[in-house]
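step: validate -> pass
step: tokenize input -> pass
step: predict -> running
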Amino acid sequence: MKLIKHLVAAVAVTLLGALSASAQSNVRLPERPNRPSHSDYSQYDRGFWCAVEATGGSTALSHRRNMQPVGLDVVGGYRFSEFLKVGIGVAGTYCIESEHVRTSKDWLYPIYADVRGNFTTQNDTEGAPYWEMAIGGQVNGGFWMGPTLGWRWGGQRSSFLLGLNFQLMQLDTWKKQNELLAVWSLKLGYEF
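step: predict -> pass
step: emit ->
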């Protein structure tokens, strides 16, 4: 009798194991979707970069009235490393109080080559000092140049910018044609 009980128990366990194993073999896992994998471009050291910057400042004319240029710049280009980025920029600049300085109240549109980079690495810190050199010309003006020194906050490929900018603008003024005017301005921007 004991032998039959043991035999029935062994057969029952074997049948339950076989049933559960066969039931699991019919289960199919979903297939991986057929789409491109995601790339986190913020981790790449090289590639396209873009910056949008707002500027505001004033000329530094002695014994004359000053004007206050304000503008918006968009720059895009190629990032070789955090220490060197090369691009092309376009800006729209409006000069407040310019009727006392310029012969025209037209907007200025600088188009320029832009080279910039960090002085130190931003890998281990939340910020780093940066430099920028922009040089080109203006629609409704002449020669234009704007070097900047500033600070970047954020990641390698996503940073806020704050910089002190010095611009040389060639404009027709009431004093003379094609006069070079110096402008000190503050630059706020976002770079990605």
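step: describe -> Helices lie at 2-25.
step: cleanup -> pass
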